[in-house]
From TrEMBL:
It is a multi-pass membrane protein. Its main location: membrane. It comes from the Bacteria. GO terms for cellular component: plasma membrane. It holds the Pfam family BPD_transp_2. GO terms for biological process: amino acid transport. GO terms for molecular function: transmembrane transporter activity. Belongs to the binding-protein-dependent transport system permease family. LivHM subfamily. This is Branched-chain amino acid ABC-type transport system, permease component. It is found in: Cell membrane. It comes from Thermus oshimai JL-2. Keywords: Amino-acid transport, Cell membrane, Membrane, Plasmid, Transmembrane, Transmembrane helix, Transport. The chain crosses the membrane at residues 12-31, 38-55, 61-83, 95-120, 140-159, 188-211, 223-249, 256-276. InterPro entries: ABC_transp_permease (IPR001851), BCAA_transport_permease (IPR052157).
Length: 287
C-alpha cells in the first residue's frame, strides 16, 4: 500500500508539473498581455504533434524539444499582432476569437495527423525504469518533475533579476504607470504572448510521452490550465506552481480512490477557493 501511494504521489507530481507549464503561460498571457486565450490548449496540442513529427523525422527528441517551443512562440506572437492587437480590453471578442482559433488549430491537426490516439515513446535516454530501493518507477515522469522544478526557479530568477522580468512585473501590476515610466505595454504584451504560447508548446512536447495524444485534448488541457490559474491566483508564478501541484494531487489521488468523481473533486476545490478567497490562494486582491 505504501508503494502504491508513493507511486501515485510521483504520478500526481509529474502531471502537476505539466499543468504548471500550461498555467504559467496562460497566467502570463492574461496578466501581462490582457488576453483571455482560450486557444491555449490548442497550442499545447500543436506543440505535442509537431514534437512527435520532428522527433520522428530527425530521430532526436531533444532537438524537437528546442525547436518546437521557439516556432510555436513565434507563431503565437504573430497571431497576437495580426488578430488580437485591436481587441485589448474587449474580453468577449477575445474569448470568441480564441475559441475559434482553437477550433481551427485542432481541425488542422486532425486533418494532418488523423483522429487516432497516438502513444509517444519517451526518448531512449529516459526509457525504462529506475530502481529506487523497493520502488520501481519510470524515468520519464521523474525527468518531468525535475524539469518543472528547474523551470519554476529559472522563471522566478528571470522575473526578479532581468530587465524584461521587471517590465513584466510592472505591466502586470499597473500598465498605466508602467507606460508613464517609459515601458511599452504593447511590446511587453506581444513578447509575453509569444513566451506563453511557447510554454504551452513546451508542455505539449514534454507531455506527449506522459499522456497519449487524441482529438479533444486541447479543450481538456485548456480547462485544466484555467482551473489551476483560478485556484492558484492570476498573475503569480507561485500561484501557478502550487495551484498546479494541488490540482495534480487532487486529480491523481481522486482517480485512485474515487475514480467516478475525480473531476468533480477538482471543481469542488475550485468552488471552495472561490468562495473563501476569490482572488485565488496566492493571487492579488482586486479592489
Amino acid at each position: 500500500m505504501v508503494l502504491l501511494l508513493l507511486t501515485q504521489l510521483l504520478n500526481s507530481l509529474a502531471f502537476g508539473m505539466l499543468l504548471f507549464l500550461l498555467a504559467l503561460g496562460l497566467s502570463l498571457i492574461f496578466g501581462v498581455a490582457r488576453v483571455v486565450n482560450l486557444a491555449h490548449g490548442a497550442f499545447y496540442l500543436l506543440g505535442a504533434y509537431l514534437g512527435l513529427a520532428l522527433a520522428q523525422a530527425w530521430g532526436n527528441f531533444w532537438l524537437a524539444l528546442l525547436v518546437v517551443p521557439l516556432g510555436v512562440g513565434l507563431l503565437g506572437a504573430l497571431l497576437e499582432r495580426v488578430l488580437l492587437r485591436g481587441l485589448h480590453g474587449r474580453e468577449l471578442e477575445q474569448v470568441l476569437l480564441t475559441i475559434g482559433l482553437g477550433f481551427v488549430i485542432a481541425d488542422l491537426l486532425r486533418a494532418a495527423f488523423g483522429a487516432a490516439v497516438r502513444s509517444v515513446p519517451p526518448p531512449p535516454e529516459l526509457a525504462g525504469p529506475l530502481f529506487l530501493g523497493p520502488l520501481i518507477y519510470p524515468k520519464y515522469p521523474l525527468f518531468l518533475i525535475g524539469t518543472g522544478l528547474f523551470l519554476f526557479f529559472l522563471v522566478r530568477l528571470l522575473l526578479a533579476r532581468t530587465a524584461f522580468g521587471v517590465q513584466i512585473r510592472a505591466v502586470t501590476s499597473d500598465p498605466a504607470m508602467a507606460s508613464a515610466l517609459g515601458i511599452r505595454p504593447e511590446r511587453v504584451g506581444l513578447l509575453t504572448f509569444g513566451v506563453g504560447t511557447g510554454l504551452a508548446a513546451l508542455g505539449g512536447v514534454l507531455g506527449a510521452p506522459l499522456i497519449a495524444l487524441a482529438p479533444g485534448m486541447d479543450a481538456q488541457m485548456t480547462l485544466f490550465a484555467l482551473m489551476v490559474v483560478v485556484i492558484g491566483g492570476l498573475g503569480r508564478l507561485e500561484g501557478a506552481f502550487f495551484g498546479a501541484i494541488l490540482v495534480g494531487l487532487v486529480d491523481g489521488f481522486g482517480r485512485l480512490f474515487l475514480p467516478q468523481v475525480a473531476m468533480f473533486l477538482i471543481f469542488a476545490l475550485m468552488a471552495l477557493v472561490l468562495a473563501l478567497k476569490p482572488e485565488g490562494l496566492l493571487g492579488r486582491r482586486l479592489a
